[in-house]
Specification:
Glucose Permease (Domain IIA); 4 helices; binds zinc ion; alpha+beta; 44% helix
């Protein structure tokens, strides 16, 4: 009985400290909405990690208990009793984290809606359909191949070039043209290592042939943030960024989608 009481007291203290440690992280209204969104998605990642860890412990616990079933000593029975207490404790923490994750998701959806509404209002008041992003490289402006029909550098056949090619040395930082959410980060045939971002207006941008990618799918990125390093992966004949812009899922000449200033 004493042991149970001890465990309960420890549990309660742990739980209270947990609540405080997480509530202190949430600060609304002070920072920029994109920063808030970034902090919420980071918290979600953290909760997901904890839930996975606890899941692993729960699974291990069940395995251990079923393998101990045949042994019946009083000592073992006492151990199993404590185990079952721990088991419910872990389950309780898991439920707590799942609840927190659910709340984070709710605020994330709400925040994205608010950001989109804000942008929409800004677009309407200036009578344009999308926000111009910034140039995807800091110091390299030369376009080696423009948007439109061209002879493909590898197949030598006439084809439509969906983007613009901007040469730059290997591992130059590729930057996000505007605030948004990474919807693809990985290898795609032809494109090589490619990042695609969905922005909060009606715009999507794509950055291909990277040597490496430094963001993950689902990550919220800010305008100007480094997302990849220049390379020559996929169908490419040299280090460059192939950059595409879509408005309402239709490709446009990227030059209309970015401004020359930062
Ligand atoms: Zn290209």
């Amino acid at each position: 009985m004493n042991k149970i009481l001890k465990v309960l007291v420890i549990n309660t203290l742990l739980f209270v400290s947990l609540i405080f440690s997480f509530q202190n992280n949430i600060s609304y209204g002070q920072s920029n909405k994109i920063d808030e969104l970034i902090s919420i998605t980071k918290k979600e990642e953290n909760f997901n990690k904890r839930i996975n860890d606890l899941d692993y412990i729960l699974k291990k616990n069940i395995e251990n208990r079923s393998s101990d079933k045949n042994m019946k000593s009083s000592l073992l029975e006492r151990r199993i009793n404590i185990d079952s207490l721990k088991y419910s404790q872990i389950k309780f923490f898991k439920m707590y984290f799942e609840r927190q994750l659910f709340n984070c998701k709710k605020s994330e959806i709400l925040l994205i809606k608010e950001i989109k509404e804000e942008r929409e209002e800004a677009l309407e008041s200036s009578n344009v359909t999308y926000i111009k992003g910034r140039w995807p490289l800091e110091n390299y402006r030369y376009i080696s191949s423009g948007y439109g029909y061209r002879t493909h550098p590898i197949t030598k056949k006439l084809n439509f070039h969906n983007g613009i090619d901007i040469p730059a040395p290997k591992n130059t930082s590729v930057i996000a043209s505007d605030d948004g959410i990474v919807i693809f980060a990985g290898y795609k045939n032809g494109y090589g290592n490619v990042v695609e971002i969905e922005h909060f207006d009606n715009k999507k941008t794509l950055y291909a042939h990277n040597n490496s990618i430094v963001v993950n799918e689902g990550q919220v990125v800010k305008r100007g943030q480094v997302i990849a390093k220049v390379g020559s992966t996929g169908d490419s004949t040299g280090n460059h960024v192939h950059f595409e812009v879509k408005i309402n899922n239709k490709r446009i000449n990227p030059l209309y989608g970015i401004s020359n200033d930062l």
